[in-house]
Amino acid sequence: MIVRPATAADAEALAVVQVRTWQDAYRGQVPQEHLDQLDPSRRHEPWRRWVEEARPPAATLVAEDEARGVVGFVSVSPSRDADTDPEHVGEVQAIYLLPEHQGRGVGRLLMDAGLSRLAQGGYREVVLWVLETNASARRFYEAGGWRADGASKRNDTRGAPLEEVRYRYRSRSGR
Q1: Please, what CATH class does the domain formed by 2-170 belong to?
Q2: What does pTM read for this prediction?
Q3: Which mean pLDDT values do the consecutive 10-residue runs of the chain (175 residues) have?
Q4: What is the gyration radius of the CA atoms in the chain, in angstroms?
Q5: What are the structural domain ranges in the chain?
Q6: Residue 12 half-sphere exposure toward CB, CA atoms < 13 A
């Protein structure tokens, strides 16, 4: 398994990983009708644009299996939250891994690569948002040293109003 920067040629694979992972991870948390209508072909072009237009420290890094191709990704950037300073706080915007590759250390490999990318940009703090009901993801983050910081928000983009909580990670290096 290697982790490398995504290229525009990875856009289709990124869309497939995102949709398949959403359909698996959010089952029972997001309306099934929303999950059923997700189509990777509608996400291909946005992924191509994101990868082509991302400027450091923003990046998408992919986990690539020699036999299976792209099996996961992490996207990082300066924080988009109004109550954080994007000069000092980074963000993990997304981390997704195909279900059949979960529990094998690939997610940790991706997270470490994303945090390393942000640390290289000088970020000492990083935030991410997770569905309040996503116990599996929350356990993964907490095992990696992330802690809920008390912030929450309502997200209406997944077919119903859903509560998200913010997690924060403080590294020993950075600005």
Answers
A1: alpha beta
A2: 0.91
A3: 96 96 89 90 93 93 94 97 95 96 93 96 95 93 96 82 94 55
A4: 15
A5: 2-170
A6: 2
